[in-house]
Amino acid sequence: MQYRDSDVTCMQLLTFLVTHYNYQIVTLRQNQSNDFWLANPLNKEYPVIRLCGDVSTELYSQDTYLKSVHQVILSAVGAQGLLLILNTNELSAAAENEYAKQYVVLPDQIMDEILIKAFPGIESVCHKVENNQEEFLKCTKRLEKKAMNEARQRRKIPVKDLPKLTMVLIGICVAVFILVNLLSLMNGELTSAAIFLGAYYKMSVVSNFEYWRLLSAGFVHADIFHLLMNMMALFNLGFYCEKRYTKKQFLLILLASIVAGNLFVFIGDANIAGLGISGGLFGLLGAYIVSLCADGSIKNRMVRVNLTSTIMMNVFISLLPNISLMAHLGGFIVGGILAFIMIDVKRWKTLRMHTRNAFILLIVGLCLLVPRVQRIDPFYPMTDAILITTAQKLNLNGYAELMKHNFIKTAESQNESAYEPSLNAALKQLQEAKHEKN
User: Fold this and answer.
1) Are 217 and 313 part of one and the same domain?
2) pLDDT band at 29 (very low <50, low <70, confident <90, very high)
3) Considering its fold, how many domains does the chain have in total?
4) Angle, nearest 10°, between helix axes 301-318 and 278-295?
5) Cα–Cα distances in Å, from 323 out to 108, 196, 198, 353?
6) Does 33 score more than 70 pLDDT?
7) Alpha-carbon distance 433 to 430, whole Å?
8) Are residues 245 and 116 in the same domain?
């Protein structure tokens, strides 16, 4: 392919603006040939630049095209400013209207002082070369090198920049996951192993008053895919939220969201086994959204698009079978409210005060509901028998007897006369299976 002098000058300008001023190349579906669009929302004067080599002596004939593309890019990057057009065709002329300025840039010629002031160093960028194709390829390689370096930097996070508290939490979750799977090898049942090591189980909460499970359940995972998905989400949300909140605030949001999520499950769901940190993740998601609103990032169209897709995906996940919508909902509400109270934004002062009062009422309301939702439905005698047997195998005989006594007592209080015989039959079955194995 033969490159014109105007093409090479365009590429020289493109390489300079991308490598020295961090402009990003914008890809347009209806992009014309020899027509480059760049964006940098941090440049307040010229957030959008067009590089072209076509003949243009005035802007009126292209007004519709220029204005529409300019507005689309401004909306995408969340910026305001003039459109700067750098035209490399010698037959073109400088032009200006209410939203755009065009300058003609030619190799080895004196450049306009306004451009030199806006982009120091640009005056020495454009020069004639002996081989246009070689120069074009050289510029292309420089752009590719910068893109690869940026991609490498995004993938490689220095150890000092890792979210330290998040990494500790990930370590705890992984350690508990290993313990759950080791214990399941002993008792032969993964769900019961998870419950024994702290997963939410309404029967244990109500019968044994083990309300600590509302918190511990967040760190219990039994399935490797569940663990990996949650840890990836925790790392991404933690990486952002640890920068926006203090460590105490971050930890409070996460832990309170876990408790709130499981409390919503306790009030709204049946006697289920609940595990995983997803309630806390939804709390961090709520905190993330609040921070975007606080610093104005939510005004960025691309941020809104990405956030909307993230929310829609999480709503879809929450509606899948065996996924606790109540845990996600409770975590999201409490995480968002706490973040709103924590972030000191002057324009939110009055609203924060009312939110704080509403949050107190929410806590009081949840606490009042807890004694009213002690009903266990359905009962799982075999699961309870495995829990009791597991405690016996670990020489926790006192805990085993306490569980059995309290389980039966709870069933009797709810007129479940068939529960005790079923539990004893399950215990006998497990004992016989143990003897046969030995």
Assistant:
1) yes
2) very low
3) 3
4) 160
5) 66, 20, 18, 34
6) no
7) 5
8) no
